[in-house]
Amino acid sequence: MDIATVIGLVGGFGLIITTILMGGNAGGFVDIPSVVVVLGGTFAATFVMFPLKTIIGTIKVAMKSIFFKSQDPADIVRTITGLAEKARKESLVALEKVPIEDEYLKKGVLLVADGSSEALVRSIMEIELDFMKQRHRQGQGVFKGMGMLAPAMGMIGTLIGLVNMLQNLEDPASIGPAMAVALLTTFYGAVMANVVFIPIAKKLEERSEEDALFMQIMIEGVASVQRGEHPSVVKDKLEAFLAPALRENS
Amino acid sequence: MDIATVIGLVGGFGLIITTILMGGNAGGFVDIPSVVVVLGGTFAATFVMFPLKTIIGTIKVAMKSIFFKSQDPADIVRTITGLAEKARKESLVALEKVPIEDEYLKKGVLLVADGSSEALVRSIMEIELDFMKQRHRQGQGVFKGMGMLAPAMGMIGTLIGLVNMLQNLEDPASIGPAMAVALLTTFYGAVMANVVFIPIAKKLEERSEEDALFMQIMIEGVASVQRGEHPSVVKDKLEAFLAPALRENS
Amino acid sequence: MDIATVIGLVGGFGLIITTILMGGNAGGFVDIPSVVVVLGGTFAATFVMFPLKTIIGTIKVAMKSIFFKSQDPADIVRTITGLAEKARKESLVALEKVPIEDEYLKKGVLLVADGSSEALVRSIMEIELDFMKQRHRQGQGVFKGMGMLAPAMGMIGTLIGLVNMLQNLEDPASIGPAMAVALLTTFYGAVMANVVFIPIAKKLEERSEEDALFMQIMIEGVASVQRGEHPSVVKDKLEAFLAPALRENS
Amino acid sequence: MDIATVIGLVGGFGLIITTILMGGNAGGFVDIPSVVVVLGGTFAATFVMFPLKTIIGTIKVAMKSIFFKSQDPADIVRTITGLAEKARKESLVALEKVPIEDEYLKKGVLLVADGSSEALVRSIMEIELDFMKQRHRQGQGVFKGMGMLAPAMGMIGTLIGLVNMLQNLEDPASIGPAMAVALLTTFYGAVMANVVFIPIAKKLEERSEEDALFMQIMIEGVASVQRGEHPSVVKDKLEAFLAPALRENS
Amino acid sequence: MDIATVIGLVGGFGLIITTILMGGNAGGFVDIPSVVVVLGGTFAATFVMFPLKTIIGTIKVAMKSIFFKSQDPADIVRTITGLAEKARKESLVALEKVPIEDEYLKKGVLLVADGSSEALVRSIMEIELDFMKQRHRQGQGVFKGMGMLAPAMGMIGTLIGLVNMLQNLEDPASIGPAMAVALLTTFYGAVMANVVFIPIAKKLEERSEEDALFMQIMIEGVASVQRGEHPSVVKDKLEAFLAPALRENS
Predict the structure, then answer these.
(1) How far is A183 from chain B (nearest CA, A)?
(2) Which helix (H) or strand (E) holds B237?
(3) ipTM confidence score
(4) 3-state SS class at A31
(5) D residues 117..136 contacting C (CB < 8 A)
(6) With helix as H, strand as E and coil as C, how does chain C read?
(7) What whole-number distance in Å separates Cα of residue A167 and Cα of residue D43?
(8) For D56, how many CA atoms within 13 A lie in the half-sphere containing its CB?
(9) B59 touches chain A (CB under 8 A)
(10) C41-55, C96-110, D118-132, E57-71: the lowest-pLDDT one
(11) What are the MotA/TolQ/ExbB proton channel domain coordinates in residue numbering (chains A, B, C, D, E) (predicted)?
């Protein structure tokens, strides 16, 4: 699934660079000071926006968006149905020895095997879900913030260029190139915001919703197992979370 | 109902093309590289925004927006009232053999016939409703995302054109046409966003709300049937969901 | 109350037309193709946005915004207090014969007179309230959509005009008038959006909130009557919904 | 507290007028037809947006924003703690004779003294709080609406001016002044929106939140008094609503 | 953690000033009247927007954003687990003598030691949490308001400059510099909004969420201690609030 992010980034920058090369004037689109003021200004304002640890945490989160290996929700349903069967045949305590890959599901099952009340298990699992969402929202927030700041910094750079140009109108030949350079910061800001920052913020949001869905399936599944519901009821219930479409394409 | 989407798309593009033809310069509005950078850039950034399977799922969802055959809510009420009558005359188990077209309603009725508790039936049906909404939101999100990206890509294309033009002001005669070409990407982005992407996102939202309404009627209806309520009470209750206006025009 | 809508529309267009006439060049502001592309494009995209039956329903809803006769909330309180008195003196069954003008209140009272449980009456009345709100939201949505599309279509028209103009710069004398015509679509879009579509969407929202308030008063009132509360308690309770200001100006 | 509104309005207009006077061309900023189209158009569209009685009610609400005398929340806590003491020493009925300045608190206390159930008192008080909020939202809505309409009307005025100017380019000397006049409507719209309408809408929102806080304190306080809680518990509970900062600066 | 804010502000202004100096025309970017109209206008409209005491409170809140010393959430969990142990070994009353640094936690523990009911303790703690959030929202609101007003005041300043310039087009040599000065207010407004006001509003929001998280941990922790839950259960429950990532980087 990481392929989509890579294809998108490569394709987006590829198209823009190709368009520039077709104009026959690629050199005119590279201006290091303009890059520095847009990206530097965006990062500086991001530091004012977020605590240092949120920004560091976001780097990890962004990596996840590219190298994330998505779980198959049908697998989760199968695992939990298996647990329900074992719990009915043997006992809730027997679940303790079942090897479970997913850390979150494992924690819930261990709480059940320990004999915790259903309300306690659900409460612990829901708190973890809520705060997973909140942490993901922070990561999305950093990218959304940069997506808002990059065009603003682009505009600030263009204003600096325009003011400089307007105060030196003696040489008419220099007006065009000066204005071209002034527009470059707006261009950089628009590209960074619309090809990188805003789309990655959105992908993190999608990932977070997917994770939340999986965790909700696990919460309901663990509760069903604990109540000793029949495996086929458990399956019916959990498959309600899955659209036919989702299963076919996963 | 798919007619409105078709009329709208044909009418919108027809009007814009007619206006262009009236200007007597239709050739000046076709520029393949501009089309490529706007549409290609929009799709590339959409790939960064959404997981591959969400994008694939969206294509199906968009087809639905055009070829969807809407149910008549009055029909649903009639079907459920019929079930309520049968349940009172015979028994809940007898519902198992009633042929029901709608998959969702059928699932709920089978759960009732199987003797599941009211809370379980409602919980399974509500989970399916919630996740139907969530999946639809994703499809709308893809079109909303493209509706936001297309004008941005249009602006990026125009900035590339402007920078190229400003660095070649020697030939005054070329300035006008160069700027005209630069504006084309903005034009393409605005048309794609406002005639296609944003309106289709909105139609998907409308469809999703309609589906959700039908499913809510079915949830309440199945619960009423299960509680053995009198068919006329069931009818009263379910018709509260339907506005007179909705019935007349359905 | 429809007077405000009429005054506003007449006043808004009157002011704009007067300003144009004062410029001594009214003919320059009329361009039929520009009107067609802006209004036609807006309606076409609206057809993509909404199902046909929602659009048809909206026409009725807009009429309501102009010819609506608002109820006096104090009247509603008085009617319900009267019902509470009758219910205490005679019986709930006696309410069946009381003539009630408002369809919604009548339905609730008949349910009470029929001996339905309080929960059922409230549930039916609340479902109707929720779906009244949802239907009104759709009507507002159509006008909000047109308020968003009109300026976009205006911009698309202006871009067509600019591209045409920029490709024909040979005759300097034609540049000014050509650009003037190009700007007309932006002008039309801005006027339609800000004088008609957005304000009417807002008025429909206000009407919907008012209707919802009246229906909430009726729900609470019917419940009080059913519980046999003392008429003075009913009055106290229902008047909490009414601000002194609302009563004085109603 | 009304001082802030007055300082802000005088300061804002003072600064803008001073800046204009420093340009040595104050006469060029006064254009009566421009004022009329911006303000008139804004008011006309506001009439389409809101029912007449909402607009009239808003005038009173705006006056409140300037001449409002804020209550001291510590006073409210003190008053309610006093009531709790009296209720414990004497009886709930004795509260009837305590003089209470605030109408809302008085109504709640009288209901308690009359022996109404706790649920009824809370329900009446909460309904009044909810509808106070809704009425205030309407007042804010009118100012928010005008804050959105004023720049739009400014843009419409500027478009009219530009179209007029572009159709009369023969005399180059008149282009500058004509464009200056065209920009005035945008200027007026921006000033009205950003110095008057949007800030006042925000202040009304702040006031509404403050009122709601006071009313929530009163609801909890009246409930505590009715349950016969110890005055020191009542004080502890109600002071949780007050930040140290709020108390220090009130 | 205050380091990020300082780095961001110094870095952002440093980059912008360096870019200006590289243009070799730094003097052209300083215009005192422009600074006065943008900042003064922003502050004036802020006074119309907010009550005086909210503005004063915001200054303190902003200081906090820079000099704030964040608590370690793991410390909070450790403290509460310690309290749970003490409560089980000794008694709830014994908690009264435990020295607790955090004022909020201390208040909750003292209420428990005093023998208040669990519902009362939770209700007092939650009210304080809700109103902490509301006060923080006000502080963020002031900065958000200034972030919206600064660019608007910049635009108003630019409009004044443009109108002045357009009415004095006789001397072509003065047009460039006059327009440069006119653009300065837009430049100042964009810098203040995007480097200072909007980012600080966001940081305050982040801080508020962090504080709220800590307070929620304390509420759940105090409730667990009061119910006499086993310290290891308390630890399990509270650690669900903490992401592994959060613990590692705190």
Answers:
(1) 7
(2) helix B231-239
(3) 0.87
(4) coil
(5) 120, 123-125, 127-128, 131-132, 134-135
(6) CHHHHHHHHHHHHHHHHHHHHHCCCHHHHCCHHHHHHHHHHHHHHHHHHCCHHHHHHHHHHHHHHHHCCCCCHHHHHHHHHHHHHHHHHCCCHHHHHCCCCCHHHHHHHHHHHCCCCHHHHHHHHHHHHHHHHHHHHHHHHHHHHHHHHHHHHHHHHHHHHHHHHHCCCCCHHHHHHHHHHHHHHHHHHHHHHHHHHHHHHHHHHHHHHHHHHHHHHHHHHHHHHHCCCCHHHHHHHHHCCCCHHHHHHC
(7) 42
(8) 11
(9) no
(10) E57-71
(11) 100-213
Facing B52 at nearest CB: one of A1, A11, A236: A1
Q: pLDDT digit string (tens) for B40-52?
A: 999 999 999 998 8
To which residue do tokens 């809302």 refer? Answer: D104
| Locus of tokens 């969206």 | B58
Return the sign of the alpha-carbon dihedral for residues D20, D21, D22, D24.
Answer: positive
Nearest Cα residue to C23 out of C174, C170, C187: C187
If we measure between CA atoms, which residue out of A213, C62, C54 comes closest to residue B213? C54
State which amino acid sits at residue B106.
K
Give the span between the Cα atoms of C89 and C72, in whole angstroms.
26
Of chain E residues 149-178, which have a CB less than 8 A from chain A?
173, 175-177
What mean pLDDT comes out for the span B108-133?
88
Q: Of E168, E197, E198, E196, which Cα lies nearest the Cα of E182? A: E168
Q: Considering only CB atoms, which chain B residues are within 8 Å of C57? A: 245-246, 249
Mutation target among E13, E196, E197, E202 for the A interface, most CBs of A within 10 A: E202
State the alpha helices, DSSP H only, in D68-197: 73-89, 103-113, 118-166, 172-191
Match 């600080």 to its residue by tokens.
E200
Nearest to A219 by CA among A114, A130, A138, A139: A130
Give residue for tokens 């202004």: E13
Please say whether the beta carbons of B213 and C131 come within 8 A.
yes
pTM across the whole model: 0.90
The tens digit of pLDDT for each residue in A142-193 reads: 999 999 999 999 999 999 999 999 988 888 788 888 899 999 999 999 999 9
Looking at A17-26, A56-65, A78-87, which range is the least confident one?
Answer: A56-65
Residue in the block written with tokens 């008949």: C110
Amino acid at D62: A
d(CA A148, CA A51): 18
| CA-to-CA separations, B74 to A127, B129, B246, in angstroms, rounded | 42, 20, 9
| Partners of residue C41 in chain B, C-beta under 8 Å | 12, 15-16, 194-195
Tens of pLDDT along chain D (250 residues) come to: 468 888 999 999 999 999 999 887 888 899 999 999 999 999 999 999 998 888 888 888 777 766 666 778 888 989 999 999 998 888 888 888 888 888 899 989 999 998 888 888 998 899 889 888 888 888 899 999 999 999 999 999 999 999 999 988 888 788 888 899 999 999 999 999 999 999 999 998 988 888 888 999 999 999 999 998 889 888 888 888 876 654 433 3
Question: Which of E84, E72, E95, E100 minimizes the C-alpha distance to E232?
Answer: E84
Q: What is the mean pLDDT of chain E?
A: 87
Instruction: Give CA separation, D205 vs D136, D144, E108, in Å.
Output: 8, 11, 32
Nearest to C49 by CA among C186, C152, C162, C188: C152
Nearest to A15 among B40, B48, B125 (CB): B40
Name residues 77-116 of chain A within 8 A of E (Cβ): 111, 116
Nearest to residue E202, comparing CAs of A49, A248, B85, B24?
Answer: A49
Tokens 């340009």, residue located: D23
